[in-house]
Amino acid sequence: MRPLIAKGLMQRTALEWEALMLSEVPSIAVRGIADIFDHPQVLAEGLVTELEHPRIGKYRAMTKAVKMGIGDKPTRRAPMLGEHTNEVLAYFGFQQDEIATLREKGAAA
After folding, report:
1. Cβ(87)–Cβ(108) under 8 Å?
2. N or C end of the chain: smaller count of CB under 10 Å?
3. Which of 70, 67, 65 is nearest to 91 (CA)?
4. Computed over its alpha carbons, how large is the radius of gyration of the chain?
5. Which of 102, 106, 108, 60 is nearest to 84 (CA)?
6. Among 10, 60, 12, 56, which Cα is nearest to 39's?
7. Helix (H) or strand (E) holding 35
8. What value, to the nearest 5°, has the Cα angle with vertex 47 and ends 44 and 51?
């Protein structure tokens, strides 16, 4: 059965199958990251925002932050190198003098 299904699926692209199954079967074609920012469902859910970065200017990002275990943070621009070093190291128990020493020795940005 699997070879027959695979052969049948090869008759169209993933995007063509998605269009054919629209509203009939809950499915979506896999997309590259650049394409997902323009997907109608992503836009309808308000999952895309525009942020300003001091070096690269405006760019689009997802509004739902990935939880990394350091509390809930609002959507924010990509950080500069070393911008949050103190915050992250302090979260893991480093004292300010230890962080300063790590920076002086080049072990932290």
Report:
1. no
2. N
3. 70
4. 22
5. 108
6. 60
7. helix 33-36
8. 125
| Pairing between β-strand 48-53 and β-strand 57-62 as defined by DSSP bridges | antiparallel
CA distance 70 to 109: 19
Q: What is the pLDDT of residues 48-99, one digit of tens each?
A: 889 999 999 999 988 875 555 555 555 678 888 999 999 999 999 999 999 9
Tokens for 77?
């621009």
Mean pLDDT over 32-52 rounds to 87
Residue type, 63: T
Bridge partner list, 60: 50
Take residue 58 and report the two structure tokens written for it: 């405006």
Q: How many helices (H) and strands (E) does the chain have?
A: 6, 2
Tokens 């920076």 label which residue? 103
